[in-house]
Amino acid sequence: MNKSKMLSRLAMMLILSSGAVGAVHASKADHHEFEATLHAPFAADGADQDRPEARTFKLAFDFPLLEREQDVQWRLELVSPDGVVVQQWRGVQRIAGKPVDVSIAWDGRADGLILTDGVYLARMQAVTGGETVEQSWDISLGHNPAQAMPAFKALPTLHSAARANGRVVQGAVAATASLPYTVYLGNLHSQTNHSDGGGPLGSCTGAQAPQSAALGPADAYQYAMNKGLDFLMASEHNHMYDGSDSTNAAADPAVAKALFQSGLAAAANFNGAHAGFLGMYGLEWGVINNGGHMNIFNTTELLGWESNGGGQLIADTLTPKNDYATLYTLMRQRGYVGQFNHPASSGQFLVNGTPLGYSADGDQAMALCEVLNTSAFSTNTSETETGRSTYEGACNKALEAGYHVAFSSDQDNHCANWGASYTNRTGVLLPTGTPLTSASMIAAIKARRVYATMDKTSQLVLTANGHVMGERFTNSGALNLVANFASSSGKTVSTVKMYEGVPGRNGTVTQLSATASTTITPAVGEHFYYAKITQNDGNILWSAPVWVTQTSGGGGGTTPPAATQLIVNGGFESGAASWSATSGVISADASQAAHAGSYKAWLDGYGSAHTDTLYQSVTIPADATSATLAFWLKVVSSETTTSTAYDTLKVQVRSSANAVLATLATYSNLNKGSTYGQKSFDLSAYKGQTVRIYFEGVEGTTVATSFLIDDVTLNVQ
Known about the structure:
Radius of gyration: 26 Å
CATH superfamily of the largest domain: Metal-dependent hydrolases
Strand content: 35-45%
CATH class of the largest domain: Alpha Beta
CATH topology of the largest domain: TIM Barrel
Number of helices: 6
Structural class: mainly beta
Shape: globular
Largest sheet: 16 strands, mixed
Helix content: under 10%
Distance between the termini: 41 Å
Number of strands: 42
CATH architecture of the largest domain: Alpha-Beta Barrel
């Protein structure tokens, strides 16, 4: 069983030299979608001294391509901090094919009564034609002191000083004992003239006719870089490469495929000439109605379902329209990574007839869920756009279905203001010292080491017993969840909420606590947790979840002393971060499953003389009362002997100078099996020392043995 070592390269891309082809036709059936947004000012403007909390709510309704007028039934509720509806408004609004706004002037009171201070929730529901949209935003009434937050030194960002255009960033050097990551901030959802984007700001009022605008991917990357972004994704609609929003019967498949390849080349060329910025190019696959848009970040081929009049596929590879299960399987096989774009809670991403239905392949392929984006057709360039929508309910539905997705926040720019309409960003954590490349970005996204923020100057990183957000790990006993927040622009926290759910339950995500540090002992089974913070200016941040498999240890309902987890990235979902290993050891190769998540450490397995090593340095506190090393191990071997250990794995404690202090155990081909088993060792003898937790796999000359290690922990109390 030889271990595969796969390297991929982008081939030299074809450069498109011909213009747009065919006539442009809007496909109403494919882009028929009701849109409703709520603008709820977080703070009152203070203009009315008699009614200091007065403000105006705005409900915006749109139904592009609607042919007949119909009614929108809407409801707006104001919910108190303890969950009681204290004020409600209802109405019916007639809508056709143009946007309509409803303004609600509120005097800041409930039936004439002054409300107590606190952070309330403005919650909208709008229903028309069988479609329902829900949105909610926090609003602040009265005096609300800042929430106490744990001490947290902001992670470094790409640049150590503000750029010339005034972008504020944190320092480039991490504080001692901070997490070993650097934050990169950008926009993972936008279009150029390769589909229906790239409209000049002076004339852009909506989606452009496919391939008609002046500005393409290279223009977008330059603009975003100049505006201070670290990365920009050009996510082009896959069905517009024929130059049509419908189907162009005269389309030449070679021209369509060449256009896609030219986009990949534009990104590669721009990146080669601009160190410190990452241009990304891929697809926004699917249609809205009975479908759902999703980004595919790293495809090297044009995926589609349309054929020209001669029956030729206008794509490299057939992906049947609205068949998400089949697409997920292809993505998993190819290693492609995706994001649910502006997902609806119903009617989209159907698998076996279920909206946001779970599939194991989809769980491998889909890494992100867009929790917020700004108006797709905004021309704002001062980061003050007020039109924005949230999709937390749909993302929570995906999490409850079993998808392991982190939250992202994008702008869906169709006009030429890429990343400039608002201060929102997607934050991606790369191991400090790792260059910003397509490979490192995709690895971080696969590790779900991502947070969503409406404020580019603020950070939110969730940790759980030392595990960083995005990780999947096994836990027993107490679980300490910490929302680590930092703001370089002086923002404070008005509310912090910790949420919990159960993957695969298809139930409801619930609020666990309203504190930034929460210690619980979860029930035995599967769980996920994430943090959400609302700043004192109303801007919101969402952490990525952590996924926890709780085992039966821990004292039968009593809370044991809090444990500290010393191993960082013990599930390897952050790639090689915090580990030192020989080449190829930390792997997401699907031919051997991880114990949890996608990554594991895979030592040996070559069928030839080979030595692999893996280690991490830790300092065990001198005052620790216990220190327990644990990990999950599976040995896969083609050896048939029942008596001779030809291939071995040693588990050792070594000094910082690499001297062997102890060999805790030796495993071999004689321990082969089909499942993972947990191993545990007492390391209390090394209190007060800095040591290396060291794994050494040595393979013989003929028959392959693989040592698979996952979910390494070193808990001290």
